[in-house]
Design a protein that fits this description.
Layout: E1 5-6, E2 15-18, H1 40-45, E3 47-50, E4 54-59, H2 76-84, E5 90-91, E6 100-106, H3 109-120, E7 124-133, E8 140-148, E9 158-161, E10 168-180, E11 183-190, H4 197-204, H5 220-228, H6 235-238, E12 245-252, E13 257-260, H7 265-274, H8 279-301
Parallel strand pairs: 2-13, 6-12
Antiparallel strand pairs: 1-2, 3-4, 4-6, 5-6, 7-11, 7-12, 8-9, 8-10, 10-11, 12-13
Length: 306
């Protein structure tokens, strides 16, 4: 199945998966107007964990979660249904197309309810890794209200705004792991799950994500990408084909289960080639991020603040 090491018995409870390899390299062909179809061989490489209840995948940053008009193998959910031979499956956690990392699919309603109720009760949490432009020396916590951006040509775009009936409170915590070559590798936690929350808050603190098309210096990158796909002459400005945001871990505190996803190759390559982080420093930062996440999860489990 997937390449993983389980440090405790392979049951739904008391699982932790430690994975330290990069996923296959991304190519320009993945970033057209519509992404290519998934092959079964590719899909098998994304499996982090599977049992009778759940399927946990390391979603690549070029693939949408929800089914699309291009058939079952054009989305993560569609490919999962084909792989499992099931007519329906429950998407218990999701990520935006250009965010990679842990996604959990429940195979039946009972498992879906465990994760959905856990999310509602704030018993489910994520950690993210992000590459931000500029150096952040200390932890930054952001608490604002978010709402639609009426000044933007992009309908889905959000912005920091005042408290109102339509705006929603959003809290994000950025913890720097290392700062090098005017970039910061950050561990990110959110206390709320708002649309594009991390990306909006990164822009708000003036440290935008590498690869950011919408919440960067020019939203026309996003508009042109939607109209005609990726253009190679953007790479020197954007740095990556997609935003440098990765869902590192997914935890259900009450069920005492944590899944971790390896860094995608594009993310790891940027760290090593553009920021000049050697492989040992990358591994050290991952270990540090996981220790911080474990400590935070322990506090939440004991009834502390999230």
């Amino acid at each position: 199945m997937g390449r993983y090491v389980i440090t405790q018995p392979q049951v739904f409870q008391n699982i932790q998966l430690y994975i330290h390899f990069f996923m296959p390299a991304l190519e320009t062909s993945l970033w057209g107007e519509s992404a290519p179809l998934v092959s079964k061989e590719e899909f098998l490489q994304w499996i982090i964990f599977e049992d009778d209840d759940v399927l946990v995948l390391n979603k690549p940053g070029w693939l949408v979660c929800h089914p699309s008009k291009n058939g079952p193998w054009s989305s993560l959910v569609g490919a999962a249904k084909e792989y499992l031979g099931m007519e329906s499956i429950h998407l218990a956690s999701r990520l935006d197309r250009e965010t990679s990392g842990c996604v959990l699919l429940a195979k039946h309603r009972k498992a879906a309810r465990i994760w959905q109720k856990g999310t509602e009760d704030r018993l489910v949490s994520r950690s993210y890794l992000a590459i931000l432009r500029g150096c952040i020396k200390e932890k930054v916590s952001v608490s604002t209200y978010l709402g639609n951006d009426p000044t933007s040509a992009v309908f889905v775009k959000q912005r920091v705004t005042e408290e109102s009936k339509k705006s929603k409170e959003a809290k994000t915590h950025f913890t720097p792991l290392t700062c090098q070559n005017d970039h910061t590798l950050c561990l990110v936690f959110t206390e709320t799950g708002r649309k594009h929350q991390i990306r909006v808050h990164a822009q708000h603190i003036e440290h935008i994500l590498v690869g950011e098309k919408l919440y960067g210096d020019d939203e026309n990158y996003y508009l042109e990408f939607c109209e005609g796909g990726w253009k190679d002459n953007w790479l020197p400005d954007l740095g990556m084909y997609r935003q440098a945001l990765h869902g590192r871990s997914l935890c259900h505190h009450q069920e005492n289960v944590t899944f971790r996803a390896p860094l995608p190759d594009d993310f790891g390559n940027y760290l090593q080639n553009e920021i000049q982080m050697d492989s040992q420093l990358v591994e050290n930062c991952l270990a540090q991020a996981d220790r911080i996440t474990e400590d935070r999860n322990r506090v939440v489990l004991e009834g502390g603040a999230s």
